[in-house]
Amino acid sequence: MNRWWFPGCCIASLLSAGSALAQANEIVVTGNRISGDDYSGIPAVTVEKRADFLVQQIRLTNDTRAADARRQELYQTIRDLLADAAKKPGIAFGYGDEFLIPITPQDHEIPLEHNLRRPDTSSTALYVKMALGANDDVSKALETLTAFIRKARLAGRTEIEPLADVALSVVNPDRYRYEIIAEISADAKKLQAAIGSRCKVAITGLSNRVSWQRSNISQLTLYIPYEVELNGCE
To answer: Per-residue pLDDT tens for 142-182?
Structure first.
């Protein structure tokens, strides 16, 4: 029997909102779109990119009395999720904190947590991912993701609980590094033209890594924390 709970606030709040080496550093980006206060810490030049995946974190919990049985039922649930995902293009799984490690049929025994207050209960948290192509309908991708979780096959006494709101993930954000640097360079040339020969424009911070913020339901704002200095002004 399926036992699941899905918070209605998750999709509603996401639609209204409109950082282990895995897949070349796949990073989970949580939170809603950038607020006014966040903009003060972001440089003038950024690039907007669609996320590679929508990701929903879920927790699998099992309270079967025998520890070995709990473990077997949790891992059987993960195997069933993987088997069902093989029939749904775009669905994949990962676990971890900021960096996601792939879960595969060959490597599905992810770490389990044991409840100190309830010694006969074990759980584990993982991410269900839905790939986002450049032209994919985000609403339909969300529907596919949530429907997949809702229909999950649960072994034994396993229960499923989605955690927080749907997040985004990006694979190897540093692949956008030189695109961002080119945009910064172009902006610096415009600034130099605007001020003429009165000052010299100098850019610092280009050795920094790419940073990111969520900008809407499916987009990320990517940037390098650089600074512009004006020197030798007359």
So the answer is: 999 999 999 999 999 999 999 989 999 999 999 999 999 99
pLDDT in tens, 34-59: 555 566 689 999 999 999 999 999 99
- Residue among 148, 202, 151, 212 at smallest CA distance from 176: 212
Complete DSSP assignment for 38-52: HHTTS-S--EEEE-S
Alpha carbon of 122 to those of 2, 43, 63, 125: distances in Å? 18, 45, 7, 11
The contacts of residue 31 (CB under 8 Å, 6+ apart) are 167, 214
Write the CA distances from 211 to 128, 173, 176, integer angstroms.
24, 8, 10
What is the value of pTM for the model shown? 0.81
